[in-house]
Design a protein that fits this description.
By secondary structure, the protein is mostly helical. The chain folds into two domains: 57 residues; 117 residues, Serine Threonine Protein Phosphatase 5, Tetratricopeptide repeat, CATH 1.25.40. Helix 3 crosses helix 7 and helix 5 runs antiparallel to helix 6. It is elongated and about 60 Å long.
Length: 176
Amino acid sequence: MVTIPQDIQQALDALVEAGVITREQIAIVCGGTNATEVLEGILELLRSVQANKLETSPPLNPEDFYREGSGTYEEKWHIQFPLPVPFDDLDRKTRFFVLFQEWSHRELQGLTALGNGQTAEAMTIFNECLARAEQLQANELAARSYEDLARVAQKRNNLADELDFLTEAASARRAG
């Protein structure tokens, strides 16, 4: 049995607490002969959980994430598609819906960049998606943004960052 570094153990504990993986699954994976093998096994387990989630996830409905409030949403990024009226003239709910759709559009652009091997561009876009999700206070969008960042880390063979991003995704989803 390999000793797992404390930072990785804390990340695993957060994933167990979020209900993403079980202690039994971790114990099976931790039968590896070295820390790298254990980490790769854990990430493979997390990837399979993520793949199952993506296969069963219906498209996001902005209505499910909108919350009434007194604050307003600002146009922090350029709106890709023309609006029939200026953004500032829209009511709060319509602004939310426009910004939600903009998040979706940017995520698609990031996934396209990642699929084309443009990891730096994808990383930039997914970090923007995360900031957009935070502006909208939509934890599910934040979770998906972190999962997208994990895909970039995976493509770059950066196991530590991939685990960190998947842990953040689980935390965001748990908070949401």
